[in-house]
Amino acid sequence: MGPAFVQQERDLTSEGLTKPGYLGDMGDAGPGKVVAIIPAHDEALLIGEALQSLAAQTRIADEVIVISDRCSDQTGPIAAAHGVDVKVTVDNVDKKAGALNQVLASLLPRLSDNDAVLIMDADGSLSPGFISEAALRLREPEGGGPRVGGVGGIFLGYPLKGFLAHIQDNEYVRYAREIGRRKGRADVLTGTATLFSVRALRDVERARANGGLPPGTGVCAPDALTEDNELTLALKHLGYRCVSPKACTVGTELMPTSARLFHQRLRWQRGALENLRTYGLTRQTLPYVGRQVMTYAGVAFVPFFLTALISRLVTEGSIRWSWFWLFVTGFVIAERVWAVRRGGWRSVVLAGMVVPEALYDLMLHGVYVRALTDSAAHARETWDHTKLAEFDRTRRGWHRWSRVAGGLYTGVLLAAVVGLSLACTAIGVAWPIIGGLVLAGAALAALRLSGLDPLGSLLGTGELAAFDFSLKAEPQGFGGLDTPGDALTYVTRQAPASVRLRSTWRQADTPGDGLTYMTRQAPASVRLRSTWRQADPPVVRWAKNPEHVP
Predict the structure, then answer these.
(1) DSSP code of 255?
(2) Domain tally for the chain?
(3) Sequence-ordered list of residues with C-beta below 8 angstroms from that of 474, at least 6 positions apart, any chain
(4) Residue 177 domain-assigned?
(5) Is residue 5 part of a domain?
(6) Backbone phi, then psi, for 13, in 5-degree steps?
(7) Do both 229 and 374 map to the same domain?
(8) pTM for the whole structure
C-alpha cells in the first residue's frame, strides 16, 4: 500500500525519505542562526536518516547537536560519523525533557534572540523545505498581533507496511487536513519537529522561574509526559502564536504493534490531561478543555447508545430503522472517507470498509478511559514503553491499589453511563438525546467538509500575514528585534550533478569521493550510510554579503 500523502505536498517516499531530484524552494529565510537538536535514546537504526534529511534541507542548519541519552547502542558513533556534535547526558532521570534541558542550559546563553532552535525526534525525516518555511514563518512580524514562538511540523507516518500502519496514517492524514482547515493554527507544536525562536524559549525559562508559568527548571517541564504539549501551552500563555504550515511536513515512525500503539496513545492522552490539570482553566486552555469534553462525550455515547438499543430490542422485540438516520450516518462515513482521499485509493478503501476504523476508534476509547482513570488514581506511568526491563523496579513500585482503583473507576463510569441510558429510556428521552448527538456529529462533519473555520477569527490562525519582505524595516531574525536597513543578499549554488545531498539513491559515477556506500538492488545505486560530508560547493548558503559564503 502506497504513501498516505500527495507528492505535491510532501515529496517523500513511503519510507519517509525525500525523493531523488527534489530541490524545493532554494530561497533563504533570513540571517538568524539555526541550531538543530535531536534527543536520542538507542536510535542507531534511524538516526542516520534523520541527519540525512537535515543535510538535504534547502536552508541548511548552522549547527546540529545529537543528544545521546543513556544509549547502549551505536547512536553516538553513527551521529559523529555524520559530522555533527554529539552531547552525552549526565545522570539524566527526567526523560526527553531532561536531556533537552541539559543541552539548552549551555546552548541558549551563546545564542541571540535572533536565532532559532529546531528540536526534532531521532526517528523523523524532514521534508526538504522544512527549515526554510519554518524560519520564514518564525520571522513573520506581529502586525499588531502576537509574535510566532514556534513553528511545528505536520507529521505523517512511515514506513507504511501493514494494516496497523495504514490505519494510524489515516488518522494522521485527517489531522493534517484539520490543520489545513484551520489555516495552520496548531494545537500542539509536535515533538517530531518544531522550530522555536530563542527569544520564546528564554521567555519560557524565565517565566517558569518567576512564577509566570507552573514552576519548573529549564525550558521543558521534566514532570510532563508530553513535553511538546506542555511547551505549547507555555508559549500560548506567554502570548505567542503556534503554527503548523502545510509546507512543514515530517515523516515519523509508526508503532509496529498494537501494544506499543496503545502505550504511545496512553502517554499522549495522559500527558494532555495532566498538563490541563497543571495549568487549570484559562483562556488559553479553554479550547483544549472543550475538545476533551467532546472526546469523552463521544466515548460515553457508545455504551449509552448500545444500552438504549438493547433495551428497545428487549422491550419491543425488534429494531425500527429510519432512512433519515441511515442517510445521516452514511454522510458521516462519507466525510471520513473523503478526508483521507489525499492518502491515495488504498487509504480511501480502508476508510470505506468502516469496521476496521470503528474497531480502531474503540481501542482509542479504551485509551481515553484508561488515561482518565490512571490520572485519577495517580498511577505511575513510564515515558518509554520499549524499555520494560529498565523500569522493572519502577513498575514493581506502581502501587497495586492504583490498578485496582483504576478498574473500579472504570466500572463506576460504565455503570453510570448505562444507568443514565436506562433512566433516559424509561422517561422516553434516550433516543432524542442520541438523535441530537448524531446530528451534532453530522454538523461537525459538514463543517470539516466545507473547509470553514468559524473559530479562526477568535483564536487566530497560522496564516502568513501579507507583508513585503523587501522592506528594510522588517524583522530579520527569528523572534528578535527589528534591524532596519539590514538587507540581505542571497547566494544560491547548485551541487555537482554527481553529488546530491540526499538520503535517498543517487548514481555513483565516481565512487572514490571519500563517502561510504552500501549497494542495494542495482550496482549503480548507492546510499549514504555511515559517513557524510558536505558537497562542494554547497547546495545553498546565505550571507549578508557574497564574500561571507564559506
Answers:
(1) P
(2) 3
(3) 139, 141, 467, 468, 482
(4) yes
(5) no
(6) -80, 175
(7) no
(8) 0.78
- pLDDT tens string for the chain (550 positions)? 222 222 223 344 544 444 444 444 434 444 578 999 999 998 999 999 999 999 989 888 999 999 999 999 899 999 999 989 999 999 888 889 999 999 999 999 988 888 999 999 999 999 999 999 999 888 776 555 688 999 999 988 878 888 899 999 999 999 988 888 888 888 999 999 999 999 999 999 999 989 889 888 889 998 888 999 999 999 999 999 999 998 899 999 899 999 999 999 999 999 999 999 999 999 999 999 999 999 999 999 999 999 999 999 998 887 877 899 999 999 999 999 999 998 888 899 999 999 999 999 999 999 999 999 988 877 776 544 334 334 444 444 445 656 677 778 888 999 999 999 999 999 999 999 999 999 999 999 999 888 877 766 555 545 444 333 333 333 345 654 333 333 322 222 232 222 222 233 233 333 333 333 222 222 222 222 223 333 333 332 222 233 322 2
> Taking the CA atoms of the chain, what radius of gyration do you get in angstroms?
25
For residues 242 and 364, state if they share a domain.
no
**Omega prior to 159 cis, within 30 of 0:** yes
Structural domain contains residue 17: no
Both 105 and 182 in one domain: the answer is yes
Report if residue 467 sits inside a domain.
no
Domain that holds residue 495: 491-548
Start-to-end CA distance of the chain, whole Å, equals: 44
